[in-house]
Specification:
5-stranded mixed β-sheet; globular; binds FE2/S2 (inorganic) cluster
Amino acid sequence: MTDVTTEVTTAGDFSEETVARAKEIIARYPHSRSALLPMLHLVQSEEGYVSPRGVAFCAETLGLTKAQVGAVATFYTMYKRRPAGDWLVSVCTNTMCGVLGGDRAFEALSEYLGVKHNETTEDGAITLEHAECLAACDYGPVMTVNYEYFDQMDAGKALDVVRRLTDGERPAPSRGARLCTFKEMSLQLAGWDDDRKGALADGPAAEPTLAGNRLAAAHGISVAGFDPTTPIASPQASDPIGQQPSAPVAETELAAEAGPGDEQPYGEGSARAAADGSGPEGFQIKGNENSFLYHAPESPHYARTKPEIWFRTAADAEAAGFTSWNAPAEARAEAKARAKEWKQGKGGGR
Ligand code: FES
């Protein structure tokens, strides 16, 4: 197997093409540091892993420290810390696939290739790894090669795929795009299309995915009131299991409880939201009917379980009666004390 590199950790020496691509990636983001993830894929497209000089390259290019880059690169398993082979073979050994044969498939490949988890064959062709759930349990046991799926594997089928790879072939995945090498795939993850003819492919859902639907149909099971063309409705107040209000509401429960004439220390700025969560003229309501938080930024009454209204301007807030908005410190303190009193009286709280 290949070993951990001991390269000098300085930037530079990347190809002109990679440097140009780095600039292109950075230009996609308002802040250069946001480009780190695709930059790391870009490094892998040239180096075959996140090399020390790749870390330095990212750090210098993005204005980060090497420690910051390293922290990200070592967090995600898709960033390799050792040179990866041309073919990254990932066998799902999570519970579902493991009991269906994924464990045996991994062992067979490990024995055949002479490598263990996260190791690469001497010729640099294949890296083998255990993988956690690859999000294709219905096709388990699954294995991926450079993240393309090979479904319903067993030890024999997995060995066949790997033998073909070592013979220089590119076996067709069960679905999705055609195989490309680890470096080619990394370039795609950095944001460049695979322009090979027929490289992009996708197929319809197959039997394992549809099996549950078919069983449900055969037994007359369906989701009550499900209409695939409309969003799922909010729970109704009358719904015995729904505790949410039945209509989009931005009026606070506090406002309702207070009643006309009651003084509310944070003002009387109640508003009714439209169904899409937008508010009336002059208001900007954050969230939706399930997550409103009702307060002015300087409101003494601030609780995440309450509806929220943000004002575009102080004048809007004042017009709505949010007296604590931009109020002098003394007035704010007084309002805060009254809010506390009011909350205690109403049994309110955060
Ligand atoms: S457990 Fe293997 S894909 Fe989910």
